[in-house]
Queue: 4 jobs
Job 1
Amino acid sequence: ELSNCIFNGFVSPLWLVRAPQSLKNLVNWIEHFERRYNQYKDWIEIEEPKVIWLSGLHIPQSYLTALLQTTCRARQWPLDKSLLYTEVSKERNPAKITKRLDAGTYIQGMFLEGARWSIEKGCLDYQNPKELVVEMPLVRVIPVEANKLKLRGTIKTPVYVTQDRKNAMGKGEVFAADIKTDKHVSHWILQGVALVLNTD
């Protein structure tokens, strides 16, 4: 089975059960595997990344939960009354981030479906022709106390691991990101707007 998969350019099910969800072919999966390995290696040998690549984690939800718990412990906030808030930055290059956020982290490698991100307007905009999926700039994920967060002009955008979105068992959703919009929320819901960590 393994040799047939390699010959045909598919990822073996034996490997898929031991790795994060993916729809990639064998070549892209191997590149993804190497990048995952390098992120873990740098994390162990140097420091926690200033810009985390969520797609390279086996269970990205656990990292976000730990991020929230660590901040709540440090600032003595009640965990059940705190949540994660997101802001899209103007920066696209992770190498330009030289300082860690005081609370929260930067996330790279998120892709937008059903819309595009306008750097000029700082919000969602219509897709360009023949661009079905676009990479987002770096996104800040910031823990906040729920009673201090006042959101206006944003849409709760689901973040999925792959373009399959949720499977039949309800698995696949990581969290919901707050994305700015100058249009009514229903417009983007009808467009099927979502963020994904992995493209095909």
Note: The chain has a mean pLDDT of 91.
Job 2
Amino acid sequence: AALTAVDGTVLRAVPRMAWAPAGGPGTAIKLHLHFNVFDQIPEAWPITPGNVSESKVMAQTVKPGTLNVADRAYGHDFGLLARLRADGIDLVFRLFNNLVLTPVGPDRPLTEEDRRAGVVWDRRVRLGGQGDGPIFRVVRVEANGDVFHLVTTREDLSAGLISLIYRQRWQIELYFKWIKMILNCRHWLAESPAGVQIQIYCVLIASLLLMLWTGQRPNKRMVESLQWYWMGMANEEDLVTLLERAGCAKKS
């Protein structure tokens, strides 16, 4: 199954964009992204006002046959966990550390490889303190002074591999940073819902095209070369030369 990192990121809006209320004061846009970890490309990107629930959007956009990894914003929604499992959609989500976890049956044995990955225990638990929460497999990992409780539907994978899968969630955080900082997606060319969508779509399409052409995530020098081309200060031949100097063009 494809490994998909799921998360949302908030983009600042201006007060005039009253159609996009933030989760708190002010206005904001939220990009809900499904990111293919292996191919390093976005697969789905719903765009909503900043106060829209990430877990609700995920429930509407997640694809069958994928293994989804996500942080605590999704793991606290027991209804979402149960719905995904019922639909045959696999997951590795982090839980809040203060969540009540009641063991159901004996712990699963750990291998030496699991322990080297920071796994402390691997067991089936009932989620929540009310006695009626769903039962899931949870892996506890301790690393660098932090504690991670990882809930998963995958019974066939080792605890160490579950830990490794969750570490891949950071790929989506790096992608968010890249599209915000490198492609400078912080100034709105239009302030309507349609205008915002077009701008974000253009950024994502540009990132896909650049990665398809270069075979890697473009760097700052490459984006600067494109800006010269867009401003009319370089033609297509100049652009290819600039990209080759930046070390990003595919070798023929």
Note: The longest strand covers residues 2-12.
Job 3
Amino acid sequence: MNKPYIKIKRIMDIILSFFLIITLSPLIFIISIAIKMDSPGPVLFKQKRTGLNGEEFMLLKFRSMVADNDVFNFNKGDKITRVGKFLRSTSLDEIPQFINILKGDMSFIGPRPWLCEYYKYFTPHQQVRNLVRPGITGLAQVSGRKDLNILERIEYDIDYVNNVSLINDIKLFFKTIYVIFKKDNNTYESYTIEDEYMDLKRNYNEYLK
């Protein structure tokens, strides 16, 4: 892992996240009003996720679901609001994570921060993905995210950690822009949280044998 670049990357994250929060403040205000008008509930969605070295932090997003949505109710799909559908399709729901980046919870580029329940089923090999700060976008997200199962995405994440560099981050940035704006962009993964959780658990049990 490129430790000197990791330090430089943190400085870049601070500068860029601060700049974007200030610059996008009018858009943030408009989105906040739209969410409140569309459905009752808070503007922000907050959820504990696993970050650098397995430490937990509170992930921030614009709320795209109804306030009583339960991601662990495997018998129901996500109850996405009208505004939420637009925010997800444009990735605008991720804007509050600039605050996470400024605080040091996240980076712009890196493995996605996953639910804390996932981490306890990571093998030592898979825990490598948590040796860097999680990101808003990463290698797995531009490599067919919606068609990859969780074990495949972890391997992409590990590959990113082992080859982290400024050049690779720049490439991932432009690939992310392409994925967001291409016509067949689909923000909904083929695998549910239940699928991911059970795959991790099954793989971990195989590791213990």
Note: The mean pLDDT is 89.
Job 4
Amino acid sequence: DKLIALVRQHNLESIVFYRLKDAEHLPEDIYAYLRAHYISNISRNLRFWNEFLKIHTAFLENNLSILPLKGIDTLARFYPYFDLRSMCDIDILIKEEQFPQVEKILFSLGCQKNLYGLRQDYWRKQQCHIAFYKDKIVVEAHWGLDFKRGKRVILPHLWERVIRVDSGKHKISIFSPEDAVFSFALHWRHFGNVLCLKQVSDVSRIIKNSPGLDWDYVLKEGRLAKAEAAMYFILMQANLFCETEIPEDVLNALKIPSLQKTLIKKFLLKYTFQIKPSLKRLYLKAHFLLYDNILEPIFYLINIPYEQFCKFHNLKPYTLKSNLVYILRFLYIPISLCLKRN
């Protein structure tokens, strides 16, 4: 029961089935559950992949830039292996100035915009993606790897560094391995489940399959993007849980305080295998470990966008109650945390 709870928590059913399918003494019900998930995962991934190829082809025909993100990146990078990586949507990276054309192309392919009840202005100004859906498939079009933070440009040479891979009959442009690792590290700073080993496994595979990985580039861009803490966090996860060899001088060269590095490691060891943790509470704790400067997460919490506040606290946006709670958020947050604790 504990094994299955953890497997579900980390979205690792397919990997665990692949590793244990020939194991002796595996209970029949556990085998059946993992096998069913493994088979359905292959079917779902093939459906997502075929839909991505339609989008990819349409973009290229209209001279639009596109890079696969996260799960789709993994399928393209390690093609033709569709069985181990579970996915719930299609993530793509686009150029922000091309968003109007991207929107038209997705509409022409039968996609509809999904704003989740929030205003488009919020998604365009406060977030870095907008979701579309088609036949129960969600397509998230990202124009950035992180929220906009002043004039700071994240990975300014990303598009110049893309590499081309053969994925069946298609040539797909994907992130350089260094930028791919960055994309996962930055994702942690605005995603709730910072302990999910599914994506740590992705990072590990990328590093292990990139013997010439340019660590100097990683360190330089981490410093410029002020993302050294986020990079240390995910590299430490890969090192601790996937036996990924990270050069010691790289970990030492990430310029965050020694105390912060110690706290990150303790946080990972304490909570990664805790069954059914409070993800919101853990995200708040991790929030202060994932930034290079303690003032940045504090400033964000003080000035959290209205819609983001409502989503986090399960409030219906644009109502009188939510408007009032947002105004009084400095009282509401500590009170709600105390009530949940009791």
Note: The mean pLDDT is 91.
